[in-house]
């Protein structure tokens, strides 16, 4: 798997939520609405999610392996840091 494009849109407001991101995988699959979040241990990337009727959030799309998650997180955070 290769992340072939990353777009990050910074959010101009205070709080933990800092930006939205869109990634393209292998020039053929797009994942939108990833979020760059400031957590207690630093920045991380949250996967796109929706709110269930009971108030719980569930990921709509997410990596299966820790290696894939790290690849996505690294690519998005590198792009985020280049625009701030």
The pLDDT mean sits at: 96
Number of domain modules: 1
CATH fold call? Arylsulfatase, C-terminal domain
**Order of strands side by side in the largest beta sheet?**
1-2-3-4
Give the ordered list of helices and strands: EEEEEEH
What is the CATH-assigned architecture? 2-Layer Sandwich
**Beta fraction of the residues?**
over 45%
Percent in helix: 10-25%
Strands, helices and their partners?
Elements: E1 3-10, E2 17-25, E3 29-39, E4 42-46, E5 49-51, E6 57-59, H1 66-83
Antiparallel strand pairs: 1-2, 2-3, 3-4, 5-6
Keywords: Cell cycle, Cell division, Septation
Protein name: Septation protein SpoVG
Organism: Anoxybacter fermentans
Written account of the structure:
- The strands form 2 sheets. Strands 1-2-3-4 form a 4-stranded antiparallel β-sheet, covered by helices on one side. It has a two-stranded antiparallel sheet with strand order 5-6.
- It is globular, with a radius of gyration of 13 Å.
- It has one helix at residues 66-83; strands at residues 3-10, 17-25, 29-39, 42-46, 49-51, 57-59.
- The protein contains 1 helix and 6 strands; from the N terminus they run ββββββα.
- It is α+β, with helices and mostly antiparallel strands and 84 residues long.
- The protein has one domain (3-82): 2-Layer Sandwich (Arylsulfatase, C-terminal domain), CATH 3.30.1120.
- It comes from Anoxybacter fermentans.
In brief, what are we looking at here?
The protein has 84 residues and is an alpha+beta fold. The chain is built from one helix and six strands.
């Amino acid at each position: 798997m290769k992340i072939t494009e990353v777009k990050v849109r910074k959010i101009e407001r205070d709080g933990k939520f800092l930006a939205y991101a869109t990634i393209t995988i292998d020039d053929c699959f797009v994942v939108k609405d990833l979020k760059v979040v400031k957590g207690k241990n630093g920045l991380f990337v949250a996967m796109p999610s929706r709110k269930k009727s009971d108030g719980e959030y569930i990921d709509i799309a997410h990596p299966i392996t820790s290696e894939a998650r790290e690849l996505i997180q690294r690519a998005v955070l590198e792009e985020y840091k280049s625009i701030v």
